[in-house]
Write a structure and sequence with these properties.
By secondary structure, this protein is α/β, with parallel strands linked by helices. Helix content is 38%, strand content 15%. A hairpin with a 5-residue loop joins β6 and β7 (178-180).
Length: 381
């Protein structure tokens, strides 16, 4: 009998669903039968479950991860023209909400090895208008939060963690204290977009904080600025997690630790296979953070990134470039920087990064095939 390898996908949501279909179907049916589709009991239950998982006092769910960032910024009462420092190597949503609120996104370079902001990357961009910094825990690994918090305290800056790609990651301080990413700064945000490590079947997001005053304000903002129905204390937005999505997420949260373990197993296989390939740099693991591998991102040298991507595609292997352009080279954000603005590391990363499949449903035979194909590409050169 011949083994036929199933199609390789970057994200196999159907395969993931099949493994927990009975639980998901039951949760969906119960949510529908409740008749409470907005702020139903599943939303409250999921918020509490996520609070327990993250060991954080307050979780406020919302409609999506972009809303989560916007609501977090609104809660801090920043004024138009205030500056917020972000990495230039990130998804556009990080900058988008800053611009929408009339604030100024200030783009900083990142560390070449970890893809993340560091205190030394942030400091040169601090001015008397700087009010906040948004460390993005990119690809599944935490920024060096200890040094960032120290810098933020020195300059009296708010810290908003963009944790859309790293839910479940743990950061370890020099004194041994361990905290989940998204719970370390003043406010943390995350996304439950379907392809995330903890994803729903539509859009969803959440805001996390340890500060009860901020938590109350975040709740108000997310619900039209009201605490009591029809009594609006501040200008807010309409951003709520659907009851049905909360029911799905509560089921999937039980599997998040297993998902993280599975992704790390695949990452270790890739590491072992690619360490001997001169043109490839495998993802660096830092000593102060574990890695949940939302993406497994190689740096491909010798100008071969695009050729490798095309070669993999011909072999039926998907791959992705996250991200092909710095934020400041996007037309929508070019006005925030001088015409000659350049960040060396960010621009180099945009030319060399390539992410391989690391979904929970990728099996070891597929991983072996991917490894052999990548290695074969370089052997043929």
């Amino acid at each position: 009998m011949f083994y036929v390898m199933k199609k390789i996908e970057m994200v196999n949501l159907r395969g993931q669903y099949d493994k927990m279909s009975k639980e998901i179907d039951a949760a969906l049916l119960n949510a529908i039968r409740s008749g409470k589709f907005i702020n139903g009991p599943n939303v409250i239950s999921f918020e509490r479950s996520l609070q327990n998982y993250l060991s954080v006092e307050h979780v406020i769910t919302c409609a999506n991860g972009t809303d989560a960032l916007q609501i977090a910024l609104m809660a801090l009462e920043l004024r138009p023209g205030d500056e917020v420092i972000i990495p230039a190597f990130t998804y556009i949503a990080t900058a988008e909400v800053i611009a929408l609120l009339g604030l100024k996104p200030v783009m900083a370079d990142v560390d070449y090895e970890t893809f993340n902001l560091t205190a030394s990357c942030i400091k040169p961009h601090i001015t008397n208008k700087t009010k906040a910094v948004v460390p993005v825990h990119l690809y599944g690994q935490s920024c060096d939060m200890e040094s960032i918090l120290k810098l933020a305290k020195e300059y009296d800056l708010f810290v908003i963690e963009d944790n859309a790609q790293s839910i479940g990651a743990t950061y370890k301080f020099s004194n041994g204290l361990e905290m989940k990413t998204g719970t370390i700064g003043d406010i943390g945000t995350t996304s439950f977009f379907p392809s995330k490590n903890l994803g729903c079947y539509g859009d969803g997001g959440a805001v996390m904080t340890r500060n009860p005053i901020l938590a109350e304000k975040i709740k108000m903002i997310a619900n039209h600025g009201q605490i009591k129905k029809y009594h609006h204390e501040i200008v807010g937005v309409n951003s709520r997690l659907d009851t049905i999505q909360a029911a799905i997420l509560e089921v999937k949260l039980k599997y998040l630790t297993e998902y993280i373990r599975s992704r790390n197993t695949i990452a270790e296989c890739y590491d072992e296979a690619f360490r001997g390939v001169q043109e490839l740099d495998v993802p660096k693991r830092t000593t102060n953070s574990d890695h949940v591998f939302h993406q497994y991102t190689l740096k491909v040298g010798s100008g071969q990134r695009d050729n490798l991507k095309a070669y993999l595609e011909e072999a039926g292997i998907p791959s992705m470039v996250y991200y092909p352009l710095p934020v400041y080279q996007q037309n929508a954000f070019s006005k925030y920087v001088p015409s000659d603005f350049s960040l060396q590391v960010t621009e180099e990363l945009c030319e060399v990064v390539l992410s391989l499949p690391i979904d929970t449903e990728v099996d070891l035979d597929q991983v072996s095939f991917i490894c052999d194909t990548v290695i074969g590409f370089f052997k043929s050169k």
